[in-house]
Design brief:
It is built from five helices and three strands. By secondary structure, the chain is mainly α.
């Protein structure tokens, strides 16, 4: 799976839900990403068995049915590992801050 910033944002949102289901609109609002971006990522995650989804039983009058997404146990552990691997190491963070002048001599 290709690792992108939007993918990581979706994974953060799903992990923050802590096992609860999120619908696509909530993920869009949480991440600040567009619908096509979010739904393409959710499709890839479903194909990889990282998320499951279901349609709500009945929609509110005048509104379309929502589709809810949740990380699978495999998806949860994989997402945590992926995010942990992408976190900058403390030394990298210090070097980056020094490089852009966050410290005084």
């Amino acid at each position: 799976m290709r690792i992108t910033g939007p993918l990581l944002a979706v994974l953060y949102a799903l992990l923050a839900a802590d096992g609860y289901e999120l619908h696509g609109w909530a993920i869009m609002k949480t991440t600040g990403k567009s619908g096509p971006t979010i739904y393409k990522i959710l499709e890839r995650l479903a194909e990889s068995k990282w998320v499951t989804s279901r349609w709500e039983d009945e929609a509110e009058p005048g509104k379309p049915r929502r589709r809810y997404y949740r990380l699978t146990p495999h998806g949860t552990s994989s997402a945590r590992e992926l995010i942990a691997a992408r976190q900058p190491k403390p030394a990298q963070t210090v070097r980056a801050r020094l490089a852009i002048g966050w410290c005084e001599a």
